[in-house]
Amino acid sequence: MAKLTRQLEILERIDQLIRLKATGRPKQLAKRLEVSEATVFRMIETMRDMNAPICYDLTRQSYIYTVTTRFKCGFYVEELDATTERNLSGGYCFKNALKLLTF
Predict the structure, then answer these.
(1) Which residue has the higher pLDDT, 86 or 30?
(2) How far apart are CA 38 and CA 100, in angstroms?
(3) pLDDT computed for residue 99 by the predictor
(4) 8 Å CB contact between 40 and 34
(5) d(CA 31, CA 37)
(6) pLDDT exceeding 70 applies to what percent of the chain?
(7) CA 49, CA 45: separation in Å to the nearest integer?
């Protein structure tokens, strides 16, 4: 699990640097992320496989997004409106638990 967490951290950091147009050359990016240059290439390829519109800008010497985008991965708390909250049910297990409590 630690490996997956580290990979997600790297993806998020690469995304942040791409949006800032501040990745630098692959070798510089690898040093900044404390990974190998091969890892940088694999992570960029993974991002492309996930449909990230990434290219390398020779003028800026940085990876860039060709279309405005952002990588998000994680769990985010969402406030529910009153109607949605009222319509929530505890699901099948919750209904069974209520039956047990009334038993």
Answers:
(1) 30
(2) 57
(3) 63
(4) no
(5) 8
(6) 85
(7) 6
